[in-house]
Design brief:
The complex is a heterotrimer. Chain A is α+β, with helices and mostly antiparallel strands. In chain A, about 45% of the residues lie in helices and about 10% in strands. Chain B folds into 3 domains: about 5-80, Ubiquitin-like (UB roll) (Roll); about 110-210, Alpha-Beta Plaits, CATH 3.30.70.20; about 215-575, Rossmann fold, CATH 3.40.50. The chains are: A alpha+beta, B alpha/beta, C alpha/beta.
Chain lengths: ~170, ~575, ~625
């Protein structure tokens, strides 16, 4: 489905912009550098708002639509900021047959947000994702880079995981 | 002679050059394979799957897309098997399931590739695969056109025209899968982007997803208003295209019937933009000579093409000083009507409605620009495309092909061949040369020396240089904005030593403008529309006796009675304009 | 390293170390090697903490000089992670907990007595402790592509060299012509392991010869493993990254390319990190870069990260993506061997294919061709998942039967459930029913029964899985991942999904089943790329083998497996209900309330479920200790 475009104002800093410009000047000469640059840009800003994509388009001298077309094609790129803790529920086959769908529903209930949304305090965002390859542990939930496996979908279990990200 | 490959299509043997596609081979054998997404050279993406055929290269029959699949020696091709017909039917039914099937109220009804193909394929149940659809809001933000993605079939021909032909790329495919749609960055309206309004996207759209902003009702209302004087002027290329709206062969010159139709529609006066083109030549030629003689900014670049002007403002704002300050012929025409002509007729300019018929969609943008109101009222009130005129004629029940030939009204219907050939790429240049050479040398150019063939033709970029006395003028002619971009990069880098450059936004010039009648891809892919339509203009020019702008008696009268000196103070006030630097991004 | 001799010298020294782990004559500095999996599976189960604790304890007991701790790639048995193997005895600790480390170090590593209660239970027998390779899971496996996974430290190039690493590259550069290399690969019968099964040698030959005057060529590695439930490539990249680099360099030499690209999923952070390290090390030791082995051959490799688009596993889409575009496939021909990456001749193979190359070069084409079936040579790695005891990674010779894989290696179906089908090939493949369990697995047999090899995902389904639901699941995946370029895939798969959805909701008709089947055949024949062409397979194969389940949904409005919610109802058997109310507390929809009825012998009134408010979540069934709630 169509990607959500950020509605909150852009809060990029001059430092971030300097970092991005450095990345671009480093990679600019390489063939096919657009995606690596966008990946770095997302690392720097956390998402790819119009302000960031415009810098990339201008620096590479390509249409902004080209950057946007790429950004909306790949699942990895996001146009709206993610939570400090990004929760993703694996919906790969192995996880699905072991009940990942139910797990996702429970998380939505618990956090009070839908898939692709962020909690009002900016703490958690919830997404489903493609197979992360941890099928041996199915069903699997990732919070940033931490993997939680062999979940059964009980409320206590979810509370326990969320509690680890209390700050 | 290139190597030939022998193939059999539906049992019929045909030899085609190596590297040909199955589609080309079938065309050579007079077999039509339906296509939707394919546009030769710019959109060879094999995406719509309408052109599927079965081919056998020795390992049994397989289904391939004819538009991109190359022939091989001994290949057997079947284009009409039950399997293939069923595939095409399903492809069509799937497209229809995601298409807003409002044919009855669609601007492209009767000239819609999808509609025609659905009919040809014998679709019985157009809702067979109906399911969810995406429901897009219609984008009406641009002054010249709208985009209705609900009618888009994602053939991407518009994207190819914008990106490849014009080198702009303000539209593209966004999102993916079923949500894929054509749009601009961050889903901004086209009017917010650096779109130049050229309308080439409309010209290649197979459906009613893209169309010009329609002013026909407003024009009919003005004609019906007894308090309004409605004056119409027609651009040179319109006479070379309008006949196509009524099934006439491409390249038919319908000037006389067009004038007759406009009169029957009720316009008070039917004039010709060619008159204003002659005026442009005098003003622009004078400006050029002044720049050359007084050391002004060179190369000077033409400003008749509003798509090009907007392109320059967005992408080459540093070259704005190079643009001629002359208004385009359309705007000059309106300006003269509402000043000189109004005065002459004793009309109040506020009561005049000036309508222009243009092969162009950017004219709809141009008429709303700043500094385009010499009389205090907009120079032009409505700019219609050739297609809109075609629709007006249909609506009025006029049998176009049966009309007699009639002549334009005097005095602003008088024009020279120089003004006429403005419609083809190189035409402005040739017209300017007919003026400048005479002006510099002081001698009259004889009839046999009026053809400057070096600047004619549909090549991307043409160059020539002429020496008159001790002055050498190096000129370049370019059409299509991707080509213009290449040339302008050179100018910007100081690598081009031209004196004068003609730029037309649309490839081939105005005859191939974004407002001309739409020819389906099945015609475009195998016909050079540009050359055929341009020929109509060059033929008419060759047959004329009045072939130089400076010889046009009406032009002489306008300067003598009203404007004074070409390039003088009053001429500047009325016939010149200004430009603004525009952003590329938001 | 400048010459092959330098390499051999390092190998001889390292081989004596590594030999400890492979039952060969060893001369290690250490008495024991403790191997712990650092792959994604075990890392997720906490292997990093285990390693930390282990090193701490070894320090405490002064064993750091005697015991070497090696963080390896995947051992395969991911379900039992974190996994720890102690060599030379090859004892197998499974699901290792940090709290167990203290005893393992003290009793086993110091005193030489394995801690039996922490060992993988299958290895503890009356006759002593079984060697890792004697377990059912490993016994029937034959590791070629995975030979170094779980054996070496993937972050140490010398360990790779100790296993004859980069010798194949040395061999081709110093003693084989380009054509000899290609002929060797052709003779081996190796076919692409990414799913298509195209002969690898043929690909290379085309790339070498098709455009004779090409100035630039490329070698690409497809590491955009995207089939849900497949992680073969990830495990190889994590466990043995150098093998891919070496093979790509060999391919580069064979076709005349100087530059390689590995397109790897960004969702595989460990693989990306190991590859990054491996490329750096290979450059340091001169196995990538200029003048490799002093032969004048230059070759280098760059990483490109995929950004989450399944379609980029398709070769033309992958190259379009590396070029920096939306990963939309383009029509073929021209094939990559003629116009590939950046319009240059390109060879593209997947990770597992490359992992076989150095072994083929070193051992000869005949050695490889001796394994497998007539048309499918060698081995294949499968990722076993779903309803199976031993989920994990297995490598078996082509021709092994599905039954051997599932029942012997995989340990069968858990909880005494009945096998229903095996899904291979992910969203491109199909479901294989029980009647075909004894067919030898190879490319052609799988296609013959309506599935395909795919990249090697093998998901086991049991009687609790609804086949219509499974088909719908895969279709949903395809719809999500369709690039949207061609009509059949963009709209066709969407409409197929809608019909399936209708059927699972009990709103389908028999006519819908026909409509679905026709649409499947159309999408298969008319789509632009492999994604669309294979997308209908899950539906077609389930229609072929489980049509009765479809019909049950449509005619009887019943889901035989009890999965499709709209067709289910929950009911409390009033005579079994003791009226405790636990189920009512659990119910998210407050659909359960008391009745007037008190069952004989019970004290409290029984409860009942209001079918109109019930959301069919199943929470009540899970909570009821008396088996009083049934799903119908």
């Amino acid at each position: 489905m169509a990607k959500k475009i950020a509605t909150i104002p852009f809060q990029g800093t001059p430092q971030q912009e300097a970092q991005l410009l450095e990345v671009i000047s480093e990679l600019k000469a390489e063939q096919g550098c657009l995606m690596p640059i966008m990946q770095k840009a997302q690392e720097i800003y956390g998402y790819l708002p119009i302000e960031v994509q415009t810098i990339i388009a201008e620096q590479l001298n390509i249409p902004l639509e080209k950057v946007y077309g790429v950004a909306t094609f790949y699942a990895q790129f996001t146009l709206s900021p993610k939570g400090r803790y990004r929760i993703s529920v694996c919906l790969g086959t192995a996880c699905y047959v072991k009940g990942a769908g139910i797990l996702l529903e429970k998380l939505q209930e618990k956090l009070g947000i839908g898939v692709g949304e962020i909690t009002p305090d900016g703490k958690f965002s919830l997404d489903d994702c493609r197979c992360v390859g941890a099928c041996g542990l199915a069903p699997v939930v990732m919070v940033n880079d931490d993997v939680y496996g062999r979940l059964v979908g009980q409320a206590e279990e979810i509370d326990e995981i969320l509690a680890k990200y209390a700050d | 002679m290139s190597e030939m490959v022998n193939v059999k299509i539906n049992g019929q043997a045909v030899a085609v050059p190596k590297g040909s596609t199955v589609l080309e081979a079938a065309h050579a054998a007079n077999i039509t394979i339906p296509t939707l997404c394919f546009l030769k050279d710019i959109n060879e993406i094999g995406a719509c799957r309408m052109c599927v055929v079965e081919v056998n290269e020795g390992r049994g029959f397989r289904v391939v897309a004819a538009c991109v699949y190359p022939v091989s020696e001994g290949m057997e091709v079947l284009t009409n098997t039950p399997k293939i017909l069923d595939s095409r039917k399903k492809t069509m039914q799937l497209l229809l399931s995601d298409h807003d099937r409002k044919c009855l109220s669609c601007v492209r009804s009767k000239n819609c590739e999808l509609q025609r193909l659905a009919h040809d394929l014998g679709i019985e149940d157009d809702g067979y695969y109906d399911g969810i659809t995406m429901d897009y809001a219609v984008d009406k933000t641009a002054p010249h056109m709208f985009r209705d993605n609900n009618k888009c079939i994602l053939c991407r021909r518009c994207v190819a025209a914008c990106e490849k032909t014009q080198g702009i790329g303000v539209i593209g495919a966004n999102d993916r899968g079923f949500a894929t749609h054509i749009g601009s960055a961050f889903e901004k309206g086209l009017g917010e982007t650096a779109c130049v309004s050229c309308g080439q996207c409309i010209a290649v759209c197979p459906t009613g997803a893209l169309s010009e902003t329609d002013f026909t009702d407003e024009v009919l209302a003005a004609i019906a208003d007894p308090n309004k004087k409605v004056v119409v002027n027609t651009a040179p290329s319109v006479r070379a295209g309008l006949g196509e709206c009524f099934g006439m062969p491409i390249g038919t010159n319908v000037e006389g019937k067009m004038v007759a139709a406009l009169r029957r529609l009720g316009f008070d006066l039917v004039f010709d933009t060619n008159f204003a083109a002659d005026l442009t030549i005098i003003e622009e030629g004078t400006e050029l000579l002044t720049r050359v003689q007084k050391g002004g900014v060179l190369p000077m670049i033409t400003s008749c093409s509003p798509g090009w002007v907007k392109f320059c403002e967005h992408y080459f704002p540093d070259l704005i000083p190079n643009l001629s300050t002359c208004k385009s012929p359309q705007q000059m025409f309106g300006a003269i009507i509402k000043t000189y002509f109004a005065e002459k007729m004793g009309w109040d300019p506020k009561d005049i409605v000036c309508v222009s018929i243009m092969p162009c969609t950017a004219k709809k943008f141009e008429m709303g620009r700043e500094n385009q109101a010499a009389s205090g009222y907009p120079d032009i009130d409505y700019a219609l495309t050739t297609r809109e005129l075609g629709r007006l004629i249909d609506r009025a029940g006029i049998d176009f092909t049966a009309l007699p030939d009639e002549k334009f009204d005097d005095p602003l219907g008088i024009f020279s061949g120089a003004g006429l050939i403005f419609g083809a790429t190189g035409g402005v240049m040739e017209a300017a040369l007919r003026f400048a050479v005479e002006k510099i040398s002081g001698d009259t150019l004889p009839a046999e020396k009026l053809d400057f063939k070096e600047v004619r033709g549909t090549e991307d970029i043409k160059e020539a240089s002429y020496t008159v006395g001790d002055l050498t003028v190096k000129v370049a002619v370019v059409s299509g904005l991707a080509n213009a971009r290449k040339l302008m990069e050179k100018v910007r880098a100081g690598e081009a030593d031209y004196t004068f450059i003609e730029v037309m936004a649309c490839p081939g010039g105005c005859v191939n403008g974004g407002g001309q009648p739409i020819q389906p891809a099945s015609v475009r892919n195998f016909t050079d529309l540009r050359a055929l339509r341009a020929k109509a203009l060059y033929d008419q020019d060759a047959a004329m006796t009045l072939r130089k702008s400076q010889d046009n008696p009406s032009i002489q009268a306008v300067y003598g009675e009203y404007l004074g000196e070409p390039g003088g103070h009053k001429a500047h006030e009325i016939l010149h304009t200004s430009y603004v630097a525009r952003k590329i991004h938001f | 390293m400048k010459t092959l001799q330098d390499l051999v010298a390092i190998r001889e020294q390292m081989a004596r170390e590594v030999a400890l782990r492979i039952e060969e004559e060893a001369d290690s500095k250490y008495e024991k090697h403790v191997l712990i999996c650092g792959g994604t599976g075990c890392t997720s189960s906490g292997s990093a903490k285990v390693i930390e604790k282990l090193e701490e304890e070894l320090e405490t007991y002064g064993l750091t000089e005697k015991v070497q701790v090696v963080k390896t790639g995947c051992f395969g048995l991911c379900a039992l992670g974190p996994i720890m193997i102690v060599y030379p005895e090859a004892t197998f600790y499974s699901k290792v907990d940090v709290n167990e480390i203290h005893r393992i170090v003290k009793e086993h590593l110091r005193d030489g007595n394995p801690v039996k209660e922490f060992l993988y239970d299958e290895t503890v027998t009356d006759h002593g402790i079984l060697h890792l390779n004697e377990t059912a899971f490993y016994k029937k496996q034959h590791r070629v592509a995975l030979r170094n996974c779980g054996v070496i430290n993937p972050e140490c190039v010398n360990e790779y060299i100790g296993r004859h690493g980069y010798e194949a590259l040395g061999k081709v550069l110093t003693s084989m012509t380009q054509d000899e290399v290609i002929q060797c690969i052709l003779d081996s019968g190796l076919r692409g392991r990414g799913g298509g099964g195209f002969p690898t040698g043929m690909k290379w030959r085309l790339a070498k010869n098709l455009v004779p005057d090409a100035d630039i060529k490329y070698v690409c590695c497809n590491a955009d493993e995207g089939d849900p439930g497949a992680f073969m490539d990830r495990s190889i990249l994590e466990g043995d990254p150098h093998v891919v680099l070496e093979a790509m360099a060999i391919a580069g030499y064979a076709i005349g390319a100087k530059q390689g690209y590995i397109y790897v999923r960004a969702e595989y952070p460990i693989a990306v990190e190991r590859l990054t390290i491996a490329i750096r090390q290979a450059r340091e030791v001169g196995m990538l870069g200029k003048d490799i082995f002093g032969t004048g051959f230059d070759f280098d490799i760059d990483l490109r990260l995929g950004a989450g688009a399944f379609v980029c596993g398709e070769e033309t889409a992958l190259m379009t993506s590396i070029e920096g575009n939306r990963g939309e496939p383009r029509p073929r021909p021209p094939f990559p061997a003629e116009k590939g990456l950046f319009q240059k001749p390109t060879v593209l193979n997947n990770v597992e294919t490359y992992a076989n190359i150095p072994q083929i070069i070193l051992n000869g084409a005949e050695w490889f061709a001796a394994m497998g079936t007539e048309k499918s040579k060698g081995t294949k790695v499968f990722a076993l998942g779903g309803k199976i005891k031993n989920t994990g990674l297995v490598e078996i010779p082509m021709g092994t039967t599905l039954r051997e894989v599932i029942e012997e290696i995989g340990g069968g179906i858990p909880n005494g459930k009945k096998f229903k089908a095996a899904q291979t090939g992910g969203p491109s493949g199909g479901c294989i029913p029980a009647q075909h369990m004894d067919i030898p697995i190879d490319y052609d047999n799988l296609i013959g029964i309506g599935s395909m090899m795919g990249s090697g995902g093998l998901i086991v389904l049991d009687e609790d899985n609804c086949m219509v639901d499974i088909a719908k699941f895969f279709l949903e995946f395809t719809v999500d991942e369709s690039c949207g370029k061609c009509t059949p895939c963009r709209i066709g798969t969407r409409r197929m999904y809608e019909i399936l959805d209708k059927i699972t909701k009990g709103q389908g008709t028999l006519e819908d089943i026909d409509k679905l089947e026709q649409l499947c055949n159309y999408v298969k024949a008319n789509s632009l790329c492999g994604l669309g062409q294979t997308a209908p397979n899950p539906v077609l194969s389930t229609l072929r083998y489980f049509r009765d389940e479809y019909i049950a949904h449509v005619v009887e409005k019943r889901c035989p497996a009890g999965v499709c919610k709209s067709l289910l109802s929950y009911e409390i058997i009033k005579d079994k209900c003791i009226g405790c109310g636990m189920c009512a507390k659990q119910c998210p929809a407050s659909a359960i309330s008391k009745t007037d009825y008190v069952a004989p012998g019970k004290k409290l009134p029984a409860l009942a479920i209001d079918p109109n408010t019930c959301v069919k979540c199943g929470a009540c069934v899970a909570k009821c200790k008396f088996g009083a709630i049934i799903k119908k």
